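Worked example 3. Consider a protein that binds zinc ion.
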Amino acid sequence: MKRYTLLQCFTVFITFVLISIFFSSEDVSAKVQIVASLPDLGAIAQEIGGDKVDVMSLAKGYQDPHFVDAKPTYVTKLNKADLLIYNGLDLEIGWLPPLITGSRNSKITSTDALGRLDASTYIPQVLEVPTTQIDRSMGDIHPKGNPHYLLDPRNGIYVAGGITARLKEIDPENASYYEENYKKFADHLNQKIKEWDGELAPYKGTEIVSYHKNLEYLSDWAGFKEVGFIEPKPGIPPTPSHVAELIKKMKSMDVKLVIASNYYPQKTGSLVADQSGAVFLSIPTSVGGQDGINTYADLFDVIVGDITSALKNETGETNHSASKAGG
Ligand SMILES: [Zn+2]
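Given these inputs, the predicted complex is written out as structure tokens:
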């Protein structure tokens, strides 16, 4: 009777190890590979996709989403993507299209591909759609209307719905899983929106100035009035004459708050605030824009918290604390 040598036993063992590694890596690649242009979209996709998806976000939360460095590693990621989720309305036009072309991935190259999701098509209303043709060469970077719709949390729910529907098409086996996750996401966010609404309620009608026109949806939701911008046009850096004009206007209107995303130059924002007697507030406007903001809901916890505490200090603790809703 043949006896197995130690070497033969070892070979069999190694073969089993290799086979198990092969199958476990098969499991990993069976997950839906999602690439999101922005971290907010990536965070929403992660909540819907759970452990059935791998998500990678290209832009970081501390970067201006209009201008992102197109790294070569992004092309590799896009090459393997089953689904690309992007903001649309030309927000990423300066950096995403060449990456998509470079990916040579037929799942995402055509605009009507199953693996390509323009999240803007799911929101009910695009704000500031120009009535005349806007030429990007003139510097305005919002030619298709205001693209910063993710700063209204209600839009996050619409986008989550779009992502859910698409994941169900791409991966029908897990359709009910995605549906359940969507329900959890929407229920939680709706609950949070009620809380935030309560916190913001005392400040409805507050006049604010922002650096870039990226807070329109936030203001639309929170009931703020945007009365001026540090950029003369979206994407055009401020000139001294524009800044002087803005300060004059703010003084005459007694504007109390200047807000800028934390990736904009902080110096101009705080100068405008100082000179006009307002408070300057730098806020994260995306998931990952500050430590501790890991989910879409985290983002609004911080934004609402930052704005309400700035306004509370500005308008006097006693005036508003009584009407502040519990969290
Ligand atoms: Zn913008």
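Take a moment to read the result before moving on. The domain at 10-192 is CATH 3.40.50.1980 (Rossmann fold). Confidence is low (pLDDT under 50) at residues 317-327.
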